[in-house]
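Input set for joint prediction.
Command: fold jointly, output tokens.
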Amino acid sequence: MKYILLMSGTQAGVASYHTWAQSDRDRHMQTLGAIVNDLVEKGEFVDTQPLSGPSEAKIVRGEKNGLPVTDGVFPEAKEFLLGYWIVDVATPERACAIAGKISAAPGPGGIPTNMPIEVRQFIDARTRPH
Amino acid sequence: MKYMLMMNTMRAGAGVPAWPKNDLQAHIAFMLGLNRDLQQSGEFVQAEGLTFPSQARQVRAGKDGVPITDGVFPESKEFLAGFWIIDVETPERAYAIAGRISAAPGPGGVPLNMPIEVRPVMSAPPAEMM
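tokens >
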């Protein structure tokens, strides 16, 4: 069963991260790196990617003539995707356990950030109804 | 340059299966045709549909390290319905593909004009995050 674990945040959250001490950032990234290494060892790792910030994000709508209409303005309070992990696991509980580990990654002073992680299952093309 | 194209829906948008069968089939055929085109042009990396918001979970690490799982989300929350990861030469090409996805046919074959969020994917966290 494939799941995507979504880490989202706001502009204020990202600004706060930039005020962390370098040692806190190092510990945070090392923990996230160790989680990925563990997933690779267990054969559960598919992919992980960070996304660039909302200043580089665009919202696109298709116009009637097929040309894209592009808008770069995001509401200040909008949550946006910071990054994701795709995992291939045996049970939903395992997906949630991995999300829990990511949520527990240390923040300033080594205290877990407890960031909410959204856990979403992929539709399996082999079993989808249509 | 890798981009993630994100199709988000409100909870109310979870009613796609209520469309007439031929409209749903036309929509799926459009999406499969798009993926084939991207594969032929060498721009396709990955595309996935996600299961409905009712199956989404939010996980936070508890103090004891046990994940706390919650399935209740704010009514106004946007949900990721599906995504594409593409590898293209220019941002404009990413917007053009997003515009095509946005124009996917809905009920009666009328383009949905869904907003598609276009985000550059980084292969590693940016230097300022490390």
